[in-house]
Request: fold
Amino acid sequence: MTNLNRRDILQLLGIGVAGAALPGSAVLAQAGRDMVTIAWPSDVPSWDPNQRFSPDAQSLFKLVFDQPVGQNPDLSLTPSLMTEWSLAEDGLSLSFTLRDDVTFHNGAPMTAEDVRYTFYERIKAGHKLDIANSWRHVTDIEVISPTSGVFRFGSPAPTAPQWLAFMGSYVVPKAYMEEVGVDGFRDAPIGTGPYKLVDYQMNSRLVFERNENYWGGVPEIKTITVDVIKDTSARVAAVQSGQADLTINIPVRETQRLDKTEGLTGEINAITRVILLQMRHDGEFAEQKLRLAAHHAIDKAAISKAFYGGAAVPLSVVSPPGTPGYVEGYEFAYDPEKSKELLAEAGFSADNPAKFKMAATNGHFPSDYDIARALLQMWKKVGIEVELEVIEYAKYFELNRGHKLPAATLYSWDNATGDPEIFAGYLLNPKMPFSSWKAEKPGDEVLRLFGEPDYAKRIAGYQALNREATEMGATIPLLQSVQTLVRKSDLDYRLYRNGWVLGNSMKWG
Amino acid sequence: MSGPVVKLLMRRLLTVIPTLILVSLLLFCVLRLLPVDVAAMSLPPNATNDEIAAMRIEMGLDLPLIQQYGIWFGDMIRGDFGTSIHFRTAVSTLVLDTLPATIELALMAMGFATVFGVLGGLWLFYARGGAVEVGLDLGSVALLSIPEFLWALFFMLLFGVSLDLLPFIGRLGSGVARPETITGFLLIDSLLSGNMATFMDALRHMILPSAALGLSAAPPIMRILRSSLMDVYQEDYIHQARQRGISEGRILIRHALKNAFLPTLSLMGVQFGFLFGGTLLVEIIFSYPGMGNLMVDAIRNADLPIIQTVGLTYCVMVLLISIVVDVLYLVLNPKLREA
Reply:
């Protein structure tokens, strides 16, 4: 045997773990009342805010950039860079007035030329932008003065004000972008927003410093650090260990557990995201009774309780409560007996079950696959057998474009504006890739409402359409989704109904 | 010694080229088999079918596959790896920005694996024939069965949350200034800029992810070293050394370990390749901004240009590692040099 003793071996092993004994760095201790660290689940696709539509990135973009029109926490529109806007009666133009005290982070004033550049010139110049699709009907933006102008549309644009507050609609500085180029802008972005981006490590850390000249009032918090933490467990650990002051989108159970931890507050907030079943009008689901039977068999409250701690509100129309398209007092009943009756009328029974295929994602939104499996069980009880196919979210649009989605698809839809056009309008428009329902009814009505410039008539039209769509089984709304949020109890923030978590609304209590 | 090494280098470099061509072809073809419409993915969801068709032509997706490959390969030779579908940025920029972080992490993980593996192997050998060996053996099997992401979660919860000893988010703590980018390697750049506070902070941030990666790679090293030592101890020169009165410790360190280390070195080369693969999940868990993190984003968004380039980069790294191992082998083994 060798003469090495246990002490020698342990000493040798000690070398290996010596790193763990490195002295703590004083710079780690950053507790301060003028800074906040947020653990966020995703990064921005790039620092060109017009480039890619990404719902999760909006709270980050809104630190650096401003939108022409703002939203209150209840999602009603409010002046932002635009102090006034007015949609023409025919919906073919929108005149606007801008604030005269707004400057970009480099000190240059923000003017109507920047609005024209953002929503017209960049698109015409062929920049690869997602807003090119949402603003494709802009034929010109007339600059009347540095603080006023007119959008001209090729077809009625009744939701133009809502789109001015929606994804991608951030005003970028014309002169600066032309000077540094698109790549240069992405490397060193500037906006008119409440914070300046001072450090960016892709997929890791974003550091923002307060804009002391912000037109909307200087934010309370001086420095906001956003750690991009994609792993759910790591986000839980970050907020539990105190390395982050706030995080979102962690499991409901973890939120409830952390809420009981001293110094932390957990919230489960309903937001303007709906979970629904996208239906096809043809094939296995061509028979309306079968679609309605499938809907009556779903116990939405049980699904909410099982997967969202009961916080997800059961829906009967594809507009959540509090949004304009919501139909007050209307409820599509959970009624398994009615479901069985409808199935019998359609010629199906327990011995001769109705069969169809359903698609669902696994991991695209919280508990998606679990919900799909729960639906299968509920349907089985009434005599519907469903074959579940798991698809990647990236595949959804491709399958839908090719009209290759199965009879039903479990889907989640975000709409930060709350406007019904971006709920039922998009989800049931037969000409759009968001809808798997391609039939004339209620498709024709959707297309008509897309051109309805009168707000009251448009909203009334969508409320009626929402109800009709549910009653004919063109869609099966399930739940209003939730956003979980855990924060240090003494960190206040403004709760937005669309899930925005804005750094400039934060302050230590 | 330099002659054989140069010859070996030349020979290996010549084999690298066809290997890379083959791998690039394989990667390109396999990714084209995926049922993903790259043109549609590069446009917003509300793009029209006409816009998608136009994009398909713009991206050259209407051309025969072999022609597409030819264009891609030709561009690649010129250093143009395409533009990311999701980020709309040059892929080469994205990869070059993230590669140093992954290399740094993998090297430190390999350091951990080597220390754990070699010391563990020595301990296993030292304890051979006794009850301790059985325990250690079982322990190494248990370690072998735990994947790196479980170590990552365990370390994060133990050292990060419960004991609050080490940071586990990103490469630097909040408020710690990044050094000027010179090489892209944070540790080197902070040393070059004379910023020891940043260096120490970066080092502390690397401990948990590299330990998680290293610990999962250590058990095979441990076991192969033990087996090699056992083989070497059957050799005559070990008995002769004992007869000459050399101490057991000296025999082990000076005589046996050097020879037993050669097969271990080969395995370490293989393990280093696996370590690179393991960075994918570990980087996500520790929010480490490396190439693995980029790859996960690319896979989620079906960003084929990034997947292809990162895949090829992994291949290059593995080939480089195997060349380095071969050279080391040659340096450490005089018989090979003579041959």
Summary: Chain B touches chain A through 75 residues (CB under 8 Å). The radius of gyration of chain B is 24 Å. Chain B is about 75% helix and 0% strand.
